[in-house]
Design the sequence.
């Protein structure tokens, strides 16, 4: 009988996740944890069982666009995969958006919501994309204080009943500007008392949604982001016909292939102003900050899934006389990935906590500034980590990792979108640098990290904490130096600056958790992860100054 390799398997994804469980035990009051734990157990079981099996079986199905019906009517119907249909029901019923708005657990409602999302996401083929935009739309509508639209849409966006549940699109990207949204060409005209949009949207994710928030330039407005207005639209008319929206085609993408991503023409689409006829970029920002948080949660969730599979496989795969799980070099490789994941996890869930605090009216001014800074920093840091980690995860399976019907290549392809959409690494680095330079957010970060590090007692953690403080000092000095050097001087170093903040903050949070796990759980695994993460390097600004970066790169690329 020829040898057959046993495939990797998953258990209950909540029960098996030491990092999530330990974090929740530290962060939540015992009563809150006891209340939400049954949901987490159920979601962990589903994600490691039924839904995961369905994901593997459903691997090849992709969304289909039907542009015409048999009688020549333009219908532009999108049929999504069976898994996506199931995911929609689970998302509504389990309140994956609603939990944040029901606010049953006060400032910890976001922790509750995102713990569920984190468990659900890796088995749901990026159904987190429409959910992220739905959550973001709810947040932007609330921030707009537009009572009429809030009354109309919010009950749908936060419904737990599938029949009532809506998802939202976020239509920003045009051919002229993906990052530079101010170049948007779509025009808005007021015709007989109704706004109508004319233009082409180039990258509209999850086009199967019932509504969207989008940007357009009211006729006569000046160029740039300030001249845009934020619009609300519903994708179908009351009679179920397309709202003068033509779906030109679905994109043929490297990954996220279950997400129907379309090129659209808006040909007189009826829309409503959300809040005034200008400042569209500013008014859509609350949506971006929420979707960027979903991006970070998705990144840590995919890292965790890759590691769960790789660790199970290591126990089953025998090579050179022993399972991989007994090979020091293989274990060393996996432990390095685990350290990246743990730091990313704690960084992401700090942003989640801060968001929950802010929404519950419990954030100080300093914490609100920290949230504004850490949202892009965490998105860009975890976006880089997830691609690197999953590339190694694929390698940990050898050739099997490169074969489509193991379901493994999908992980890496889907992860590759995370540093791109919702703001590329460089665009977010520039945003982070501007935020850090224009208010006291970086001081808030330093103070918060200083506070976190105060409780460390284990000698290795104390040594690591000195390095973190030194790194943050250096980042601050670098920022002062670039500011003094004049407009644009620091641009070349922005990515190094933002990644330094992200990695230093991740390390500090991991160190805090490691001390807690030692004290309360007598568990040294987080300590081991902290030591490793510290050794991976956190300071990308060492030996750099503002001028170096600019001149060197220019010379190198000549
Ligand atoms: C799996 C989970 C995630 C799944 C969801 C994915 C599906 C969706 C797919 C997509 O839609 S991908 C497209 C996403 N596109 C982007 O993320 C755009 C990236 N580009 C940027 O973020 C640029 O920095 C930006 C467009 C904001 C630059 O435009 P502008 O016109 O130069 O704006 P500017 O001057 O930077 O900001 C205008 C105002 O907004 C300023 O306020 P003031 O007018 O008071 O000065 C900014 O401070 C404010 N602002 C900008 N970004 C903000 C913000 N405020 C709060 N938070 C922010 N993030």
Sequence:
């Amino acid at each position: 009988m020829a040898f057959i390799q046993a495939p990797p398997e998953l258990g209950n994804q909540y029960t098996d996740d030491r990092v999530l469980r330990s974090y929740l035990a530290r962060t939540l009051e015992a009563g809150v944890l006891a209340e939400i734990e049954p949901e987490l157990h159920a979601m962990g079981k589903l994600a490691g069982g039924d839904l995961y099996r369905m994901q593997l079986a459903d691997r090849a199905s992709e969304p289909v666009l039907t542009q015409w019906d048999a009688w020549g009517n333009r219908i532009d119907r999108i049929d999504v995969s069976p898994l996506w249909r199931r995911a929609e029901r689970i998302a509504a019923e389990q309140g994956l958006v609603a939990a944040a708005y029901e606010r049953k657990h006060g400032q910890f409602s976001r922790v509750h919501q995102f713990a569920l999302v984190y468990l659900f996401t890796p088995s749901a083929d990026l159904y987190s994309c429409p959910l992220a935009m739905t959550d973001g739309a709810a947040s932007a509508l609330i921030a707009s204080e537009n009572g009429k639209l809030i009354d109309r849409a919010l009950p749908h966006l936060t419904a737990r009943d599938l029949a009532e549940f809506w998802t939202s699109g976020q239509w920003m990207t045009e051919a002229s500007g993906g990052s530079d949204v101010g170049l948007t060409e779509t025009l808005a005209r007021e015709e007989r008392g109704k706004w109508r949009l004319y233009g082409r949207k180039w990258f509209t994710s999850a086009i199967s949604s019932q509504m969207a928030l989008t940007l357009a330039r009211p006729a006569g407005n000046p160029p740039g982001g300030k001249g845009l207005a934020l619009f609300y639209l519903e994708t179908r008319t009351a009679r179920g016909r397309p709202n003068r929206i033509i779906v030109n085609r679905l994109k043929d993408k490297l990954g996220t292939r279950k997400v129907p991503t379309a090129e659209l023409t808006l040909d007189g689409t009826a829309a409503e102003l959300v809040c005034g006829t200008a400042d569209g970029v500013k008014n859509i920002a609350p949506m971006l900050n929420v979707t960027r948080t979903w991006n970070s949660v998705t990144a840590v969730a995919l890292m965790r899934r890759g590691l769960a599979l790789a660790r199970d496989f290591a126990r089953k795969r025998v090579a050179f006389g022993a399972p991989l799980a007994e090979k020091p070099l293989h274990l060393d490789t996996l432990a390095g990935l685990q350290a990246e994941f743990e730091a990313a996890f704690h960084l992401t869930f700090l942003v989640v906590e801060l968001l929950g605090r802010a929404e519950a009216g419990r954030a100080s001014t300093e914490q609100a500034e920290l949230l504004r800074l850490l949202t892009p920093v965490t998105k860009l840091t975890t976006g880089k980590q997830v691609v690197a980690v999953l590339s190694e995860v694929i390698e940990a399976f050898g050739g099997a990792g490169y074969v489509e019907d193991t379901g493994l290549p999908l992980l890496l392809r889907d992860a590759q979108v995370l540093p791109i959409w919702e703001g590329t690494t460089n665009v977010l680095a520039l945003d982070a640098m501007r935020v850090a330079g224009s208010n006291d957010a970086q001081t808030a970060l330093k103070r918060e990290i200083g506070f976190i590090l105060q409780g460390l007692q284990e000698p290795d953690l104390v040594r690591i904490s000195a390095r973190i403080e030194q790194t943050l000092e250096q980042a601050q000095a670098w920022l002062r130096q670039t500011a003094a050097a004049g407009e644009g001087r620091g641009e070349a170093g922005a990515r190094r600056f933002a990644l330094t903040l992200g990695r230093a903050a991740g390390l500090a949070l991991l160190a805090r958790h490691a001390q807690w796990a030692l004290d309360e759980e007598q568990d040294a695994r987080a300590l081991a992860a902290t030591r490793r993460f510290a050794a991976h390097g956190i300071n990308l600004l060492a030996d750099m100054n503002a001028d170096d970066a600019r001149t060197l790169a220019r010379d190198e690329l000549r």
User: Anything to note?
Assistant: The radius of gyration is 24 Å.
